[in-house]
Design a protein that fits this description.
A two-stranded antiparallel ribbon has the order 1-2. It is built from 2 helices and 2 strands. The protein is an alpha+beta fold and 93 residues long. The chain has one domain.
Length: 93
Amino acid sequence: MSENIRLKGAKKSTKGGKMETQRVTVRLPSHQVRAMDTFIKLGEFTSRSEVIRAAISRFIDDVTEELFAKAERLKKIQQLEAATSQLEKYWKK
């Protein structure tokens, strides 16, 4: 069984450094909602929205890091292919 959760998704604004938000509706399994409520009861977070914002922020950081790592690997592969191509031209002489 899943529960509907309404939260405000954070979006940076250029107005005086304040954060502008947008409402996003998500459906989560009940066990995840109970886990969030436990975090709140333990004092780790003040609201479900805060839990979800923290989770999304960490997710975005992780995915961004992975994408940069993939881009670096692709760059190295392209450099190796270019070097191999130059060596092949040299060997054919």
